[in-house]
Design brief:
Blueprint lengths: L14 H16 L6 H8 L13 H23 L6 H18 L1 H7 L6 H27 L8 H20 L5 H6 L1 H10 L5
Helix pairs in contact: 1-2, 3-4, 3-5, 3-6, 4-6, 4-7, 4-9, 6-7
Length: 200
């Protein structure tokens, strides 16, 4: 009698993580427009319907990628932060970590800050942004208490400083600034943020 092969249950380890990794690779190499759940399923070696267990459509995949990006950025910023450092050196380390992340993940960063997200996910993204910038806010609050930085809403000051850093990142992403030049100049950017441009 011929023995029939046993039916094996569906198994692909962590399919969601595999799909996100493949999606980020496509995003980096070809851009968001090239992303396709069907193509990701083919590359991952699962049925074309399998990704639907984790992502209802392409927008859900993009939203998940954005959230993943902020989670990674949060880890990068937390690792770079050192409250024991003087304010300028501490801020320089945080700024360099942020810029390094943006250089390595330019396409992902653009997606992270895109406005087109599911309304429910937008709230999650807002919370993710707050977690990512928390080291900056703590730095500002501590420096204000010591009289090293002007008074004012710490989150607003963080927003202004972040806009400067994000501008440097954008110039780097579009080729106006070479990545190494941007990284080499980050201490000067931070110095001007803290001390202004007027001669003493």
């Amino acid at each position: 009698m011929v023995r029939m092969p046993e039916s094996r249950p569906y198994h692909h380890g962590d399919l969601r993580a595999a799909l996100l990794a493949g999606a980020e690779r496509t995003l980096r190499e070809k851009g968001a427009a090239a992303l396709s759940l069907r193509e990701l399923a083919r590359e991952t070696g699962v049925s074309h319907a399998a990704p639907g267990r984790h992502f209802k459509d392409k927008q859900a995949l993009l939203d998940a990628l954005a959230l993943t990006g902020f989670e990674r950025l949060t880890e990068v910023m937390a690792t770079a932060d050192d409250p024991a450092l003087p304010v300028e050196e501490r801020l320089t380390r945080l700024a360099a970590a942020y810029l390094g992340f943006t250089i390595e993940n330019a396409a992902l960063l653009e997606l992270m800050y895109a406005r087109k997200h599911d309304p429910d996910v937008s709230q999650q993204l807002a919370a993710a942004v707050e977690r990512a910038i928390e080291p900056f806010v703590r730095l500002i609050e501590g420096a204000q208490q010591r009289g090293e930085i002007v008074e004012g809403d710490p989150e607003h000051i963080t927003l202004l400083a972040g806009a400067t850093l994000h501008g440097v990142a954008a110039f780097t992403a579009q080729g106006t600034l070479p990545p190494q030049a941007a990284l080499d100049g980050i201490d000067e950017v931070v110095h001007h943020l803290l001390h202004g441009l007027r001669p003493r």
